[in-house]
Amino acid sequence: MKRYERLADEIAGLIRSGVLAPGERVPSVRNASRIYGVSPSTVFQAYYLLEDRGLILARARSGYFVREHAQRPLPEPEIGPRSTGATEVDVSDLVFSVLDSLKDPNTVPFGSAFPSPDLFPLARLARSMAQSIRALPPHAVITDMTTGNPDLRRQLALRYMVSGVMLPPEELVITTGAMEALNLCLQVVTEPGDLVAIEAPAFYATLQVLERLKLKAVEIPVHPRDGIDLGILADRLAQLPIKACWFMSSFQNPLGASLDAEKKRRLYALLQRHQVPMIEDDVYAELYFGIQPPRPVKSLDDEGLVMHCGSFSKCLAPGYRVGWVAGGRYAEQISRLKLMTTISPSVPIQAALADYLQHGGYDRHLRKLRHALETQQASMLASAARHFPPNTRVTRPGGGYFLWFEFPQQVDSLQLFQQALAQGISLAPGPIFSATRRFGNCARLNYGHPWDVRSEQAMAVLGRIIASF
Amino acid sequence: MKRYERLADEIAGLIRSGVLAPGERVPSVRNASRIYGVSPSTVFQAYYLLEDRGLILARARSGYFVREHAQRPLPEPEIGPRSTGATEVDVSDLVFSVLDSLKDPNTVPFGSAFPSPDLFPLARLARSMAQSIRALPPHAVITDMTTGNPDLRRQLALRYMVSGVMLPPEELVITTGAMEALNLCLQVVTEPGDLVAIEAPAFYATLQVLERLKLKAVEIPVHPRDGIDLGILADRLAQLPIKACWFMSSFQNPLGASLDAEKKRRLYALLQRHQVPMIEDDVYAELYFGIQPPRPVKSLDDEGLVMHCGSFSKCLAPGYRVGWVAGGRYAEQISRLKLMTTISPSVPIQAALADYLQHGGYDRHLRKLRHALETQQASMLASAARHFPPNTRVTRPGGGYFLWFEFPQQVDSLQLFQQALAQGISLAPGPIFSATRRFGNCARLNYGHPWDVRSEQAMAVLGRIIASF
What we know:
homodimer; alpha/beta; Arc Repressor Mutant, subunit A; 3 domains; 8-stranded mixed beta sheet; about 45% helix; about 15% strand; PLP-dependent aminotransferase family protein (chains A, B); PyrdxlP-dep_Trfase (chains A, B)
């Protein structure tokens, strides 16, 4: 990372944490140069970048100011406890009708689960593909199926090491995307009828998997900023025979919430006390806006209780279908179950990703991607403040590419979804994120696509529909 | 196909069917030229090819003769009915210990489930990969996940059409290999505890899947040449609440048996009468040695009862992990289940295969592959006749790359497996193909690798171990 990028990240951190409040003047170039011990031109470059990311604003002859919407133009939603027992899940039909709506490429994709493909280094990946397939020994197309590509496992173990997790490569099972990893983990630690603790709201695929495997959901409310309510989780673990927890500890989908280091420690202590395994769905881990990557619960796991699932689908190569799980004490069972169901993800694709990780400039790409997403978040927040009713609430996640909106009570987000779709705009209505069909006045919007006039117009249309309720 | 290749195939058919008996003289070049209306040089080329494939033998000054082992040097095994009820399945540990033994590349791979990678056009596939990924529109990496690559679906539908099956491309669900397709099909039509009719012996993965899904096996005996016993199947369907049939109608693994057209019609009539869906595992379909491809049961299916599963893993691209299912009336459910478990096989790999099918010369490759396999079969049969006890029985399949050996009663194939492995030779012992651990004196040997001195020596070693029992 260049010096000016680091400086920009530091100042962005001050803005996010509220040290620099909205409307406040940021240090002059001369002062900043002195404080940070860098040249004035480095400060200028950093300020240009922050302006570009929508965080500060130049005012003629008075310097730079923190943008009003860079803090929080709309208040945060609040998600309290509701159901206390276990719930059968039946949400699949609704989810599929939403997913079907995304097929038309002309729809404004606020409902999408992926960032724009234009943000990914597809051409560079294609080169890695062409190079690696020529270098792949013929017998590898068969032997790599059982074990996964050894280079890819090594590269992944290296990345874990950098983020503070020491893993033998053998603990890693390469899967057909994180979705397969999550499915395998859950099957290894549960039987039909078992109880599983999940988040509320939860990623809709979590609900679909529970439904499919005939598992019962114990919903743990998620605070929009700090993540799951550990007090409620502790109660549920004490009262109910919960067989597994399935949580996203960083940039939770759909809220974008993250547990801080202290909460992660307390969560792991709970798992240890009850000897309940946790499936840590960490597919947004690389999409942090801060300076440091968040450390997963897995980094605390000295008992092998945590199955940590990752993927390239959200940060590098959607559609390549390569994910993995660091399976802890369950790694061998997960690997066997995988061999019995899909055998392996594509071997040449694994080789291509290994080549890219080694030579492709992955970290450079990730820095660009994070900045793009942070900029787009600022644009969507600003746009929402312009077009949505002032009593709308919205999250302000420190990573990922989703905002969660809580509209006034009378808004029915399933109707909103239908009306918006009729005008060529997709969104993900709240009820698909709940086993109990809560969040009827909420919606998840994707800011993973470069912001343009069409996005702005779509927000205005949504604002009008919301106001009409 | 060239004229001389067609002629060779016709004569090979006469040999296989016994019209031309072992030791018998094949028509002289002059006679053959007259009978078939081709030039003498075409006949010579055909005879050279047949000699190369191990079917005929030139004797100095007396012409060509059918080789002794080209017919059947060892008699066929016989597989009778045994268990009549439904059986819980528990075979996985045994299967994994066999699969583990295959990891060492120095082992003679008679136990392998795949042909040699050297028989596949990996370099040409790499070119298709490089070309197609450059041409892939960015948004396809996301949209193709739901529907599968449209070109690949079209190419597959075309190939079905040529083999007499009319399919709308929408009925095709592209999967992570046939293994995923088979798993999905079974889950769509069964609940835990249900009864499923399978073959005895059966492909071991079938048994593992039943075990995993807690389904009960109803074993239908397979005749080594003609396939499942329809009389017994009819009885079982009448007596037991069987929810699905899972059969390989052509080149069954491990026996290599195929149902002829008439038996396929009778099988389909049974399915219709009882309205029981059939999962048709047809992954060896392209590896026929005859002139005509076998037509699947799916070709008779006007009610959508048959889920026809195919794959590129055995005939073109192992390790690419692309298979499919023509799902009949279950296609939509299968597709949804796939979206909930792995979402999709790799999108760029699908594009590469679509490109190869269109431009790569797939049919030319398949002809070469079939001839190589047929030649290797002749070599292994001849070698078995030289080295194995004369009361050994063996199949003589018309396609695929497996021979099934039935050794004298006192041979314990699990011990044989261990002793052979200690000498660097793998094989697939009989009990892994049975829910009831039958076939203790049988083994499946893979002839999918080019025959060489090492193969011959390995057969001699196996012969000595067998004789020692």
